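Chapter summary example.
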Amino acid sequence: MLPYQRRKKNWFPDILYYEASVNELKKYIKKSTEDEEIFENLLTSVKNLFPEIKDSNEDIKHTIKTQKDESLKDLKAQMDESLKDLKAQMDESLKDLKTQEDKSLKDLKAQIDESLKDLKAQINELIKDLKAK
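The structure predicted for these 133 residues follows.
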């Protein structure tokens, strides 16, 4: 290009923007840290960033793991507590059912005894009437 063409600001802006995928950038960084040749050619400021990125990545992984463990413990404790509550409710319901069953059996037995007494009294009256005739 000619010098007058290079001086035109609308052709060449001061700041250039690039779009890049974060995943692809991470892959490139991993590959570059493994390949020492590429790593040696980088600027020193960029070289200093790589260990920081690794450290922050490890910190994030550790934080996620501890949070996951804590949430699992909390969920397990909540499940255990709800199971205990459910078991207590079931035991209480069974006791209530037993008391209701016992009460209904006693009532039924009392009704049968009363009807048998009435029937026995009627039979005795019939026998007396038959003997009287």
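To summarize the output: The mean pLDDT is 84.
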